[in-house]
Amino acid sequence: MTGSQSSAPTRGRQRNEADVVVIGAGLAGLTAARELVAAGRSVTVLEARARVGGRLLNHRLGDGQVTEIGGQFVGPTQDHILALAKEVGVATYRAAVPGENVYVRNGRARRFSGHLLPDPLALPEMGIALARIGQAAAKVDPAAPWRAPNARELDGMTYETWLRKAGITGAAVDLVNVFLNSAYGGEARDASALFSLWYVSTFGDETHPGTMERGTGTTGGAQDSRFVGGSQLVAQRLAEELDGRVQLNAPVRRVSQDSTGVTVVSDAGDWRAGRVIVAVPPLVASRIVWDPLLPAQQDQLFQRLPFGTLMKCVAVYDRPFWRAEGLSGMGLLRGGSPIREMFDNTPPDGGPGVLMGFLGGREWRKWAHRSAAERRGAVLRCFAQVVGERAFDTVDYVEQDWTAEQWTQGGPTAVAAPGVLTDFGQWMGRPHHRVHWAGAEFSPYWNGYMDGAVRSGQHTATELLHQI
Amino acid sequence: MTGSQSSAPTRGRQRNEADVVVIGAGLAGLTAARELVAAGRSVTVLEARARVGGRLLNHRLGDGQVTEIGGQFVGPTQDHILALAKEVGVATYRAAVPGENVYVRNGRARRFSGHLLPDPLALPEMGIALARIGQAAAKVDPAAPWRAPNARELDGMTYETWLRKAGITGAAVDLVNVFLNSAYGGEARDASALFSLWYVSTFGDETHPGTMERGTGTTGGAQDSRFVGGSQLVAQRLAEELDGRVQLNAPVRRVSQDSTGVTVVSDAGDWRAGRVIVAVPPLVASRIVWDPLLPAQQDQLFQRLPFGTLMKCVAVYDRPFWRAEGLSGMGLLRGGSPIREMFDNTPPDGGPGVLMGFLGGREWRKWAHRSAAERRGAVLRCFAQVVGERAFDTVDYVEQDWTAEQWTQGGPTAVAAPGVLTDFGQWMGRPHHRVHWAGAEFSPYWNGYMDGAVRSGQHTATELLHQI
After folding, report:
1. A288: nearest CA partner in chain B
2. Which of A272, B70, B123, B189 could serve as B160's disulfide partner, Cβ 3.0–4.6 Å?
3. DSSP state of A321
4. B6, B297, B303: residue with CB nearest A251
């Protein structure tokens, strides 16, 4: 381990102390801090933003109502986030709204119920796709995808190539991409086949192997439920419990280690700690100044985990008018729409009406640099295809572009291109001397989801407590 | 444009001024600075390291002799670096050493002359590969690969997949990877087909379309010549000419812009300038704190341009003993050797003897984390297969691992995975308000090479001078 590489930036600054400094007050960091405090350690959580929650963000609708413009859904097998929410007193409710969904293809809308798309051609193609994806994903170990029997072959091609080779075509490819747009802000070409199949394998837990159905499902799947008060409330409650241990507006600029501890330099002062947990996304972590540097292999891995591109587009109405017309507000749109998947995001007690659409993957890349007005128009036209012309009668319209958030730089999660998992994956969670890693990207189950973040925070706290 | 996002880091610090601040004293930055000074502008070049040259680095052998442990080769159509070297008084010499080359396959060595591999099976496969790669690369515009007729198709698959689809198999795939290991520190699976074919299209200039033969060739190709005194000497001469305008040990931590100029915060003090040229690799640039942030599309692009993995391994001997045995010291090794391509890197006047091997791509990923002693043994065993057992009688052994260099973080250049060029490529060189970009990664010709760096530095200086 080397000494400081530059003129000491900490000279003359106040230095605070803690057993453990946690960097990042998202779910993973807050969960880790909670475990450490319960084990009797002194902990400070340094958060760059003026708020906690990371990729969880409530948007106030007035009158105490909120809707989410970050992560929002939970479902079965996500027991870690569900248990934690219960402990901090945040209730859940079923996300699905009674009524029919709408399927739009090339501008033509058709109503449908449940999961059965009203597309006679797409249905058998989707059936084949789900079966083949399921078979392939079942061979991937969520904890070590690089050990899959054909890992090197799968990691040598894009998921787009794999889908074609697996005879998955037409509507199925399009619908898989609709899912990927929302789930990781990407396209089938952005990810290796191994990564995408591994990702499916993470949609479960130790006793329920991951399936595409669970990942894409509403009721009974990953979009089953939501939190009363908004998902960010879970993070806010955790922060309250931590009772003054969370320091906001404290972007960390440098982490220096020596044989006796770690110095963390933030805009809110310096901390000295025995151990550090970095609970920010790998990309964001890689932009901290590291002294000594991260191991080259780990830095290379972090270089190869870009974030997806995702924006949430939210339209607010006096009331959820579509419900009276027998519509659930859920829509699937194919054929080049900016919004390809949308949901009724109305608060649980029924008002005001909120529609939320994902603008992700390639659509983000087409639309993000255009004017806000042009984009708003295009988004509302999508909404109108699903719920009718009243979609234009908004009382509010909000965009949350996660790629433009300084402390996230993309969303909703990291995507690995071909070659990354097999050549670098094993470096993912390896501690760097006194620095440990946590976050949704570090979990073998529900990677990139709230449940993965909580799992990872608990896992890393335990790992660290075993070492000190 | 927003104001400073944190407690002002510049308060009470000395502030220097210049018309233009150039960040990075590699070839691109130094070339740009030279042009700006010639145009009468005041310029400061801020360099993070204690030396100039970036990815050009001489290693001293004693008695005034040097060998290169960074970029070293130049060749025909690289007129920009050749002209610049001439202007600063650095001469070139032919790199090829008389004698036979050695081809090692599965541990068995065969001598050969010129380009004709002594492998009756590999030759026709390579012939077909070169023809098909050439045909496909000819359709890609070096300045706008995303406009190629089949750009989206090519950018949806890895180069590995494309090679298979093009009927390029066996030895040819292996030899293409040997080239990629050295040329971009990667494997055919790391890059999209579009990126790799575009890369071939850049091996030329406005009047000589790029070809694989020119990129891989020794005499008459990209490995034709070397610089007397080592390639870093060109950068050193440029820095001398700049006469005090280069500030070493000045890592830039933050770049803040407002309507009247740019503030650059470095460990050596702060600078205020009208314009800034960032002449460090995209990955390194993305780790600077940007205020305002980079456009999200450009940040996403930089997130998706990881560096390759490359180490140069250099063994020094009393003299180049292999020459007396009729060997050129050039070796091509297939079948899982850590070193897959090696050269005689002896200084031009003939001593001491130097062998240099590339440990790149997947081999780096296998070997970089092992002990230095184990790696040295494995590398020398490779050298011994090419020049005999005397390869073990070293007087010195040096490794230069570019991935472990803080201000490069990989090498020799950036590699784009599928989806990147078509969805984000157009954001590559776009100025960010008062900030302009330069570097080998920004050139449409000899991208990632010295010539690309010089071209880019000249181009960006011209672009900037047109705007102020």
Report:
1. B287
2. B189
3. G
4. B6
Pick the CATH number of A93-98+308-404 from 3.90.660.10, 3.30.565.10, 3.30.365.10, 3.30.750.24: 3.90.660.10
The verdict on a CB contact (< 8 Å) between B306 and A309 is no
Contact A7 B187 (CB under 8 A): no
Question: In this model, does residue A9 exceed pLDDT 50?
Answer: no
Q: How confident is the model at residue A293 (pLDDT cuts 50, 70, 90)?
A: very high
A120-216 homologous superfamily: Guanine Nucleotide Dissociation Inhibitor, domain 1 (1.10.405.10)
pLDDT at A372 over 60: yes
Q: Which of B190, B287, B424 lies closest to A419 in CB terms?
A: B190
Q: What is the ipTM of this complex?
A: 0.95
Substitution target in A300, A359, A403 with the highest count of B β-carbons within 10 Å is A300
Per-residue pLDDT, A468: 85
Interchain pair A409, B362: CB under 8 A: no
Give A241 to chain B, closest Cα distance, Å.
27
DSSP string, A382-443: HHHHHH-GGGG--SEEEEEEGGG-TTT-S-S-B-PPTTHHHHHGGGTT--BTTEEE-SGGG-
Selecting from A158, A267, A419 the residue whose C-beta is nearest the C-beta of B6 gives A267
* Encoded amino acid at A296, one letter: A
List the structure tokens of A135: 């078979």
- What does the pLDDT read at residue B115? 79
Quick check: A306 and B300 CB within 8 A? yes
Residue-wise pLDDT tens digits, B77-133: 999 999 999 999 999 999 999 999 999 998 899 999 987 899 998 999 999 999 999
Q: What is the mean pLDDT of residues A277-301?
A: 97
Residue B240, SS3?
Answer: helix
Q: How far is A417 from chain B, CA to nearest CA, in Å?
A: 6
- Nearest Cα neighbor of B127 from B142, B109, B115, B137 is B115
Instruction: Determine if residue A112 is labeled as part of a ligand binding site.
Output: no
Q: How many Å apart are CA B249 and CA B226, to the nearest integer?
A: 28
Pick the CATH number of A15-54+232-295+430-465 from 3.50.50.60, 3.40.50.720, 3.30.40.10, 3.40.50.880: 3.50.50.60
Q: Count the neighbouring beta carbons within 10 Å of the beta carbon of residue A358.
A: 23
Q: In the numeric block, which tokens belong to residue A283?
A: 């990309």
Confidence class for position A107, pLDDT limits 50, 70, 90 = confident
Locate the chain B residue with the closest alpha carbon to A367: B297
Q: Who's near B141: CB < 8 A, 6+ residues apart?
A: B147, B148, B201
**pLDDT tens digits along A61-93:** 999 999 999 999 999 999 999 999 999 999 999
Characterise A290 by phi-psi region: left (phi > 0), alpha (psi -120 to 50), beta (else). beta
- What is the signed CA dihedral for A137, A139, A145, A149, rounded to 10 degrees? -130
Helix (H, G, I), strand (E, B) or coil at A24: coil
Residue corresponding to tokens 């993305």: B286
Contacts of residue A160 in chain B, CB cutoff 8 Å?
156-157, 418
pLDDT tens for B218-276 read: 999 999 999 999 999 999 999 999 999 999 999 999 999 999 999 999 999 999 999 99
| CATH number of the structural domain B58-71+92-98+308-404 | 3.90.660.10
**Superfamily of structural domain B15-54+232-295+430-467:** FAD/NAD(P)-binding domain (3.50.50.60)
Model confidence pLDDT, tens digit, residues B123-158: 999 999 999 999 999 999 999 999 999 999 999 999
Q: Where are the domains of chain A?
A: 15-54+232-295+430-465, 93-98+308-404, 120-216
Distance of alpha carbon B406 from the chain centroid: 16
CB contact under 8 A, A303 and B306: yes
